[in-house]
C-alpha cells in the first residue's frame, strides 16, 4: 500500500507550506474534540495503546491518519536483528513514560518489505517519524537512551511549534462524542494573499510565488508559513534550470568557489540530503572570508527556513555554524 502524502526525501516536502497550516487547524480541532468528549463523558479520557504493530494494510490508518493528532515514531525492526532487541525496549519504555506525546509504531521489515523499501531504509534498526503525513528520518542503529530521549524531545517540540500537534491520551469509547464535537469546531479562515502565493507555487509560477510571499511578509513579517513558502520558492527557482552534473563537477574541482558550493547545497537539500547540504555550507563558511563568508552564511540560514527551525538537523547545523563563526 502506497503511503499517501508522505515525503520520502528527508522531510523536505515542497507541499509542506499548506500542510503545516492545515495540520495546525486539524490539531486544534482534535484538541477541541477531545475536550468536548471528556466533558460529555464526565470522565478523564483513558489512554489508548501507545505501542502498536503496523503492517502495510493498516499503515494509512495507523500512521498517516494518526499523525495528524500525534507524532508517530516508526521503529523498523526484525526478529533476527540483535541491535533491534537493544533499541526496541528503550523506545517502548519511553513511549509509556512520555504518556501520549508520541505513539510508537513497530514495523517488522521481513513482513513489510514494501514499507521498508518506500522509506529507503538502509539498515536496521532504523527510526523515522511521521508528523502531519510528513516523514522524517530520525536515526539508525541502537542509540543509547539519552540520545534517543534528546531526539524525541526535539521531535515533540517541532511537532507542536511547526504543526500545532500535541499528542494526548484518548478514550476510544468516546469516538461518537468526538465525531459530534468535530462538527462544532469552526474552520479557521484562509488568508487570501497567502492562498494566492500557495496557488502560484503549486502551479509552478515561481516568480509569482516569490512576489506573493514577499507581499505577505511586507504586511506580516512574522508569518512563518510565508517565510517557509518564500524559502521553498526561491530554492526551486535557483535549481530549476541547472545542469546538476556540471554543477557537481565544478564544485569538486573548485572547492573554494562559493557559488559552486551553494549550487550543490541547493541540489543536495532538494534531493533530501539535508545533512550533506548543511555540512557543505558550514565548511564553506569556515574556509572563506569577507563577502564570500557572509554569502555562504546567509544561504545556510535560508536553507534552515526550508527545513524548519525546530528540525533536529537544523539545530545541529546551527550549533556547527556558531562554532565556526565564534
UniProtKB/TrEMBL annotation:
Gene3D superfamilies: Glutaredoxin, Tetratricopeptide repeat domain. InterPro entries: Thioredoxin-like_sf, Thioredoxin_domain, TPR-like_helical_dom_sf. Residues 39-157 form the Thioredoxin domain. PROSITE patterns: THIOREDOXIN_2. It holds the Pfam family Thioredoxin. CDD domains: ybbN. One of its GO terms (biological process) is response to stress. It comes from the Bacteria. This is Tetratricopeptide repeat protein.
Amino acid at each position: 500500500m502506497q503511503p499517501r502524502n508522505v515525503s520520502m526525501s528527508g522531510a523536505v516536502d515542497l507541499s509542506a507550506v499548506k500542510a503545516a497550516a492545515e495540520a495546525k487547524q486539524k490539531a486544534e480541532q482534535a484538541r477541541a474534540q477531545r475536550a468536548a468528549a471528556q466533558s460529555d463523558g464526565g470522565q478523564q479520557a483513558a489512554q489508548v495503546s501507545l505501542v502498536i504493530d503496523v503492517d502495510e494494510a493498516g499503515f494509512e490508518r495507523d500512521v498517516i491518519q494518526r499523525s495528524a493528532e500525534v507524532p508517530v515514531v516508526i521503529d523498523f525492526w526484525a526478529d533476527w536483528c540483535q541491535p533491534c532487541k537493544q533499541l526496541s525496549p528503550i523506545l517502548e519504555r519511553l513511549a509509556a513514560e512520555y504518556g501520549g506525546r508520541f505513539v510508537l509504531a513497530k514495523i517488522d521489515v521481513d513482513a513489510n518489505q514494501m514499507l521498508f523499501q518506500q522509506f529507503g531504509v538502509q539498515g536496521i534498526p532504523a527510526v523515522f517519524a511521521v508528523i502531519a503525513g510528513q516523514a522524517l528520518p530520525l536515526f539508525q542503529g541502537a542509540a543509547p537512551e539519552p540520545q534517543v530521549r534528546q531526539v524525541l524531545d526535539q521531535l515533540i517540540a517541532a511537532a507542536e511549534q511547526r504543526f500545532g500537534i500535541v499528542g494526548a491520551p484518548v478514550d476510544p469509547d468516546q469516538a461518537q462524542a468526538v465525531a459530534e464535537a468535530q462538527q462544532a469546531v469552526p474552520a479557521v479562515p484562509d488568508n487570501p494573499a497567502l492562498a494566492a502565493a500557495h496557488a502560484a507555487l503549486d502551479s509552478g509560477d515561481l516568480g509569482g510565488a516569490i512576489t506573493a510571499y514577499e507581499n505577505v511578509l511586507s504586511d506580516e513579517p512574522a508569518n512563518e508559513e510565508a517565510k517557509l513558502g518564500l524559502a521553498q520558492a526561491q530554492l526551486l527557482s535557483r535549481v530549476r534550470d541547472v545542469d546538476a552534473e556540471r554543477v557537481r563537477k565544478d564544485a569538486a574541482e573548485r572547492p573554494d568557489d562559493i557559488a559552486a558550493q551553494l549550487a550543490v547545497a541547493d541540489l543536495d537539500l532538494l534531493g533530501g540530503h539535508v545533512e550533506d547540504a548543511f555540512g557543505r555550507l558550514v565548511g564553506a563558511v569556515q574556509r572563506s572570508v569577507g563577502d564570500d563568508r557572509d554569502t555562504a552564511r546567509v544561504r545556510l540560514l535560508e536553507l534552515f527556513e526550508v527545513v524548519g527551525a525546530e528540525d533536529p538537523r537544523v539545530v545541529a547545523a546551527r550549533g556547527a555554524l556558531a562554532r565556526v563563526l565564534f
